[in-house]
Amino acid sequence: MENILLEIFHEICKYVSPKDLYSLSTVCKRYRKILWLTHSMKCQNIWKTSRQRCLTYPNLPPPNGWNEDWPEQKYIWFTLLSDKCFICKDRLLEKFHDRCWEFRVNCCKDCFDKCAVRRRLRRGQPIQYFWTKDIQKAYEEYKGLGNEEERQDWVVKMQRKVQRFLQEIFDYKLQDTVEITRDLQARLISNNHHQRT
Ligand SMILES: [Zn+2]
């Protein structure tokens, strides 16, 4: 009986929007336990089906990320629900403008300036931003390697990883741009409509 109820609950959840799934997960410990599993295929499937059924954005699958595959819950939180700076917790007014796929944070300008550094890696190349914590972590990893050969391999591996990651975030930024444009169009149409009526 218990299992049948659980199956029914799973099925119902697939018709609930991701935003409401979030609310539902805060109702009680039991719902939270069911909806909060990040490595369960069944749970990921609920969120995926809900996202595909109820939303037009985001429609790409969750990103692979830098060091971890993103679960559906994190993806929804990052793209739709989070409205505070991940670092200082102040409210963000421009959710797309303050989104930083490169460093996996939504953050205000002040925090960005504190956490990122500007560097030109080689002469003639454009200035790039780097997240200080990422640099420290990479440096520790590099320092911990035993010999020159291992370091060379590590550099090649990192270069490939950066390439893959940059391609990936390009797709997600493009997805954001399409959504911003759609949102803008909808607002223009709505404004026109109000002016006429
Ligand atoms: Zn901040």
TrEMBL record:
Residues 1-50 form the F-box domain. Pfam families: F-box-like (PF12937). PROSITE patterns: FBOX. This is 17168_t:CDS:1. It comes from Funneliformis caledonium.
